[in-house]
Amino acid sequence: MSNNKTEDRKRRLVVIGGGFAGLNFLKKLDTRQWEIVLVDRNNFHSFPPLFYQVASSVLDPGSISFPLRREMRRRRMRGARFHLGNVTKIDTDRKCVVTQFESIEYDSLVIAAGTTNNFFSIPDLEKCVYTLKSTAEAIRCRNDILDRLERAALCKDAERRRRLLSFTIVGGGPAGVEVAGALGELKRYILKREYPAISVDDVSVTLVEGTDRLLRTMSEQASREALEYMGHLMVNVKLQKIMKSYDKNVVTFADGEELYSEMVIWTAGVTAVPFDIAGKQPAIGPGGRFIVDEYGRVEGLEDVYALGDIALHQNEQWPRGCPQVAQVAIQQARNLAKNLNSGKFDTPFKYKDKGTMATVGRNRAVVDLKHLHLYGRPAWFTWMFVHLISLLGMRNKLTVLITWAWSYVNYSSSLRLLLHPTRYPLRSRWGEK
Ligand SMILES: Cc1cc2nc3c(=O)[nH]c(=O)nc-3n(C[C@H](O)[C@H](O)[C@H](O)COP(=O)(O)OP(=O)(O)OC[C@H]3O[C@@H](n4cnc5c(N)ncnc54)[C@H](O)[C@@H]3O)c2cc1C
Fold first, then answer.
1. Which are the contacts of 166, defined by CB distance < 8 A and separation ≥ 6?
2. pTM tops 0.90, yes or no
3. How far is the CA of 382 from the centre of ligand 1 (A)?
4. What is the percent of the chain where pLDDT is above 70?
């Protein structure tokens, strides 16, 4: 494709990121008005709320992913093109974005690249902890958990077995609570069926949170219930503990306490996906997010918009910006599409909070709606229903539904497969020249 602009063509709109924001934006945009290029570093859309189910071997990665090219064959998006590429640089003067493969010029740009892990400058943390910000990271986590279980099942030394199976999850938000709950279920229900050589006492699961309660973005009742559920699942919860370092398998907290843990799963912080910005500079707020106005326009730049987790829209109701959740991304995306379709920019964004939820394992979940709080089994079914309808693709919905129903009946997952990456050929990594 030639990336050079010509006089008689439609204006080119480049969208970085085919996640919740990018894809929902394109679904609502009047694509006839634009020449559209969607750039994503993966050729599929993924569903982060269920990454922990991939990490805990409940779901297979394919059932929570959807090929972007297939989505773009839909009538509403016909004509839009997909380009694989990791955008590293945005040149706001030359109006182009740069990936490892090409440079793509734009007339208008929508940045919807989401967030990445934030390790808060803790030395070397990114080299030794497991994270859950992408499907690949979830698969890596799953492989290591399975590898440890298999090695522990063969290990004759009780102390070594306990060390192999020492898991710590840092961050008591929904992602941390969900992973800890899944590991707790593994310990309590699955171990004796599938790994009879391992005793429950060999496995330690510790959930660490810096504040005084779990799920602090939800109601206090939800926090209390989540804590209670953790107790049922034999998860040790440490509140008001700030992790300072992780070295030689020892987690050290700010108060000097130490905890031996061979597998640390980090869910404690995110920061905006970083770009090297050349030319005119945008306004950047806390967490590296692009500051946008009520229409999604990036302050300091022209014809550049930001959506979803990477955008920071501060207003009276949300002085520190809207929460970084899927609903905000979807609603912002639809609002920007509406304004671009009309060309009038007369509909300011207003977030309608539809509620929050988290699950802590089978029959255990908490749901905060505007006038209603649910917990236990009703909350769990609500959680499942909401996630099922939000998944992209009928095949995915059916696969997930069948897998959940099957696991519910017999606690069994057919997916505890340990698939090692192949060693050959010894070529450079994907994307490297
Ligand atoms: C483990 C986990 C659990 C979560 N659970 C929930 C939940 O239960 N409920 C909820 O509402 N929210 C949840 N969230 C948050 C929710 O996933 C985000 O708010 C939402 O995904 C934001 O949408 P987005 O489009 O801004 O970003 P994303 O959905 O992250 O999409 C970003 C897209 O940009 C692409 N991309 C990133 N960088 C580049 C680049 N440099 N070049 C090209 N492409 C790029 C990515 O591949 C991706 O496709 C969870 C998040 C995580 C990580």
1. 204, 249, 260, 261, 262, 263
2. yes
3. 22
4. 94
